[in-house]
Amino acid sequence: MLTNPSSQTLSFLQLHSRFSPIILFRSNLVDTFKSVDTQHYSSHLNPSRRLTRTDADYIDVIHTDAGIFGLPIAVGHADFFPNGGRALQPGCQPSYLVQLRLVDQIFACSHVRAWKLYAESVANPDAFPATKCRTWRGPNKSCNFTKDAFMGYPNNNRTRGQFYLMTGFKTPFAKTANHQTTD
Asked: Can you tell me the distance from the alpha carbon of 32 to that of 44, in angstroms, rounded to the nearest whole number?
């Protein structure tokens, strides 16, 4: 039972549930909501029927498969886009997965990567430094890297904007600030 709803955080890691937004929309039980690769099927819905930044005091989202299984638009107070947020995430290339005999993971690899990154951030909260930037144009073509925020857990609830970072192709996925692409 929630004794102090205004201090509750809900980390949403079940990627395919259609019911998690109902928790926010109908109850107002949480002040912080963490979403991993919010489903793309909801992008065509009226904002009142999908996740938006008005659904909790603070929402942060990790996008790893935008436009395929994941939502291609920023919907949180802080939206993190590892490797631009799009498929194919590093290590999710079909030829690489076939080589590892992981053929069954080809279609969902990038989508599932979001919760793997989040889980890694729980064990290492400083693992994923990210830079605030309006757009992502790939390594070396966008913003100079500055450590503006950390993706994942526990994220500072004052963090606002769109953030980008690079990750590795296998666990551990984290790249330190020194290994992020600059200029």
From this structure: 24
